[in-house]
From TrEMBL:
Belongs to the NnrD/CARKD family. Gene3D superfamilies: 3.40.1190.20. ATP binds at residues 231-235, 250-259. PROSITE patterns: YJEF_C_2 (PS01050), YJEF_C_3 (PS51383). This is ATP-dependent (S)-NAD(P)H-hydrate dehydratase. It comes from the Eukaryota. The lineage of its organism: Eukaryota, Fungi, Dikarya, Ascomycota, Pezizomycotina. It is an enzyme of class 4 (lyase). Residues 17-336 form the YjeF C-terminal domain.
Length: 354
């Protein structure tokens, strides 16, 4: 397979899975109103990292969620707001006060108080959201991490789908119970993060007999059925029981920030999963199951990201940057799915590229 084709190249198996993913994509109907087709929030963004949450939230918006939020620190919010007026940016997170004067600490309270206040405010937003992305640009500040852990627990209690990446995965390393057994969680580790998760759980090498998907299956099982996207030459997606392989060809440039397009894309498919389960349109006589759609949402996000990378690399070559993937989200969607329209589009293959 090559990257110089004008159309995506894929195996028959990938084509078949994408046909199922397409059934989750809402048709564009006049009866829908704002917010029904996805309200996604990205928690991340600190003083040092403002690009990652933007790329994630913007990928979610460009793919088609109705409302895209970023929940970050005040310093990050001031910057992210200049990137795009289309995102709703909330300066609710706080970083540790270790460098503040004692007078400032007395005025603003301890870090423990700040964690409680910030987490409570974010938790109050949860009923207005469908999906939470945690980690892009989060950093490793103790207060930020503690606040996020509380929010993740609250989201889990609400059975809200979660996408965890980057420094949120460090929380899972430290406390696997944060997500263990939660089928509504999707983890998107890179090679290094996957290795750290593996080692933190003390897992043994499954051996060559387990095949190339053996490790992702073992890790997903060890975490009690979360969905994991193991990124690589092909993306392996597994919850420990069902494993999907995305072999779409991506671009050859591995610039930082491409994983943020993945988290935002997966989040939008998860939001569409809710719209599908709410039967906002005719989904056909044999609807997809909620569990199956977790894997399909992860696969859809993976496919869109890999196609974004391919299209961007065709134009930019070795100069490719994460923002180039953002510009290709709609084109990637159209290349993979085409127009999805009509009341019954969710229950059939419609007029697509598949």
């Amino acid at each position: 397979m090559t990257t110089d084709s004008k159309v995506p190249v894929m195996s028959a198996a990938t084509r078949s899975i994408l046909a199922k993913v397409q059934r989750m994509v809402p048709p564009m109907l006049d009866k829908f109103h704002k917010g029904q087709l996805g309200r996604v929030a990205v928690i991340g963004g600190s003083e040092d990292y403002t690009g990652a949450p933007y790329f994630s939230a913007m990928a979610s918006a460009r793919l088609g969620c109705d409302m895209s939020h970023v929940i970050c620190t005040p310093g990050a919010a001031a910057v992210i707001k200049t990137y795009s007026p289309n995102l709703m940016v909330h300066p609710l997170m706080r970083q540790s006060s270790s460098e503040k004067s004692s007078e400032q600490q007395q005025q603003k309270g301890s870090d423990s108080d700040a964690e409680h206040v910030a987490a409570r405010i974010v938790e109050e937003m949860l009923p207005r959201l469908h999906v939470l992305v945690v980690g892009p640009g989060l950093g490793r500040d103790p207060l930020m991490q503690a606040t996020v852990a509380r929010v993740v627990r609250a989201a889990r209690e609400r059975e809200m789908p979660l996408v965890l990446d980057a420094d949120a995965l460090q929380l899972v390393q430290q406390d696997p119970g944060l997500v263990r057994g939660y089928a509504g969680a999707v983890l998107t580790p890179n090679v290094v993060e996957f290795k750290r998760l593996w080692e933190s759980l003390g897992l043994d090498d499954p051996g060559d007999g387990a095949g190339e998907t053996g490790k992702v299956e073992a890790l997903a099982k060890a975490l009690g059925g979360v969905t994991i996207i193991q990124k690589g030459g092909s993306d392996f997606i597994s919850n420990g029981k069902t494993t999907l392989t995305d072999d779409l060809t991506g671009g050859k440039k591995r610039s930082g920030g491409q994983g943020d397009t993945l988290t935002g894309s997966v989040a939008t498919f998860l939001a569409w999963r809710k719209a599908y389960m709410d039967r906002l349109w005719d989904v056909g006589d044999e609807p997809l199951s909620a569990d199956e759609m977790m894997g399909l949402a992860a696969f859809g996000g993976s496919a869109v990201t890999r196609e974004c990378s391919r299209l961007a690399f065709l134009k930019k070559g070795r100069s490719l940057q994460a923002s180039d993937l953002t510009d290709e989200v709609h084109g990637a969607f159209m290349a993979l799915f085409g127009e999805v329209d009509g009341e019954e589009a969710g229950g059939r293959e419609s007029d697509s590229k598949l």
